[in-house]
Amino acid sequence: MDPLTHTLVGASLAQTRLGRVPLGTTTLVVGANLPDVDAATYFIGSDLALLVRRGWTHGVLAMAVLPLVLGWAMHLVDRIRCRRNPDATPVPIRRLIALSYLSVLSHPAMDWLNTYGVRLLMPFSREWFYGDTLFIVDPWVWLLLGTVAVMAHSRDPLALAGWIALAAIASLLVLGVPDVPAAARWGWAVGLTAIAVIRHRGTGWPLPRLTTVCLSVALLYVGAMVTSSQLARARVVDWARNREIEPLRIMMSPAPGNPLAKSVILADNRHYHRISFVWGEGVTPLGPEVPIGDDHPAATAALASPEVRGLATWSRLPFYRVEAAADGYLVEVGDMRFGSVAVELDETLQVR
Q: Which of 52, 148, 144, 60 is nearest to 104 (CA)?
């Protein structure tokens, strides 16, 4: 998921009974984002970033080690805090480590929910796991968890101004996506208005109770989206087999802001099929089928090129377009979820 979602998860957990200790919010927010330390590789190169992203720092070994490191680091910070204020009560290190595990483990759980997936068993296995449940940016999760964060951290004018600015930026992202339906745009506006009203008038509930309600509704929403994705997958499989298409791989991508719609890519042994699925409307094919193109030897050679190691690792739905040149081949290597790169091969299928 996006960094804002991870941050809001940590900030919301901090308002439960578990997080109401000194350094609790800091530990939970940092831990919820800590596995994304591998994003620093984007400053080195995009293909390197694809090679390492959602791998080592998101795998089972990191899930065992990173919380211990974070908990120990927060313990050192707590010792400094207590030295500066002799009346302060130190936080037991086991409490900080427990909060670290809770927050760090929330990160791959959230990342699993979208179509990009996560390599949960790294470094012991490079297998990808895909939840196909939430769009990479889900405005309804933002609204639910944002309610808790705003109520907890908007007491002074500067913090309130920051939340207003963040709401404006988020609105540009949500409303600026062309595929977001009108109902979702109105729902977003109503949700922001509700947060403003709650911030101004309150709910009559103590913050821990509001936190419990928002987290519970968010979990129910995610559970409903998991169920929806699985049921929609079954409907798509039936649709394909009725047309004598054997589905070998299926990606169910939730539509931006629309829980009822899915953008589907179905792969048989030779083609990709773009499909729209909407509850209440059924399955609709979108455009012509796309050749996978992996039956040419130049495709295999191009995918083995060092220049696309990251893309080869990240790719879920790879495609290839091979063009013969005077002294070799030009191969476009890509993934149906995003862009592609060109690889030049000579007549012996070696990279130029």
A: 60
**3-class SS of residue 271:** strand
Average pLDDT over every residue of 236-240: 95
**Mean pLDDT value of segment 31-57:** 91
Q: Which two tokens stand for residue 69?
A: 């490191």
Mean residue pLDDT across the chain = 91
- CA neighbor of 105 nearest in space, from 72, 143, 68, 51: 68
Q: Residue 313: how many CB atoms within 10 A of its CB?
A: 17
* One domain, residues 121 and 213: yes
φ, ψ for residue 199, nearest 5 deg: -65, -35
For residue 274, the enclosing domain spans 225-289
Considering only 1-5, 16-20, 32-36, 135-139, which range has the smallest mean pLDDT? Answer: 16-20
**Angstrom distance (rounded) from CA 33 to CA 40:** 13
Identify the residue whose tokens are 């200790």: 21
3-state secondary structure of 131: coil
Evaluate if pTM is beyond 0.85.
yes
Chain CA centroid to CA 340, Å: 21
Q: Identify the DSSP state of 130.
A: -
121: pLDDT strictly greater than 90: yes
* Whether residue 169 sits in one domain with residue 144: yes
d(CA 211, CA 199): 14
Paired strand residues for 320: 333
184 and 282 share one domain = no
C-beta separation of 117 from 54 below 8 A: yes
36/180 same-domain check = yes
Q: Indicate whether 196 belongs to any domain.
A: yes
- Name the nearest CA neighbour of 81 among 40, 35, 26, 151: 26
pLDDT of residue 350: 84
Last residue of a domain, one of 245, 267, 289: 289
